[in-house]
Write a structure and sequence with these properties.
It is built from three helices and no strands. The protein is an all-alpha fold. InterPro entries: FH2_Formin_sf (IPR042201), Formin_Cappuccino_subfam (IPR001265).
Length: about 80
């Protein structure tokens, strides 16, 4: 595994101790996890802001409905269907 990641031994040593490799790996994993959580928070925050802006836009555009005239053609056709 050490060869796969290209980790070279320090000068004067024959091979890389596994404890050194896993120490580096642990540091990488903790940094990645912290960054992952931070990015997820940012994404969820942007998503909530987008949802709020959509709600605001749809709230502003209210559709007005009015009562249909009972003698109009549409109303007479609806009554025939029923």
């Amino acid at each position: 595994m050490v060869l796969y990641f290209g980790l070279n031994p320090k000068t004067g040593e024959k091979d890389v101790p596994t404890s050194h490799f896993f120490m580096l790996w642990f540091e990488f994993c903790t940094d990645f996890k912290a960054r992952w959580k931070k990015e997820n928070k940012n994404i969820s925050k942007e998503l909530k802001e987008a949802q709020l802006s959509i709600k605001r836009l749809t709230a502003e555009k209210k559709v007005e409905t009015r009562r249909a005239n009972p003698n109009c053609l549409k109303e007479r056709l609806r009554q025939k269907e029923v």
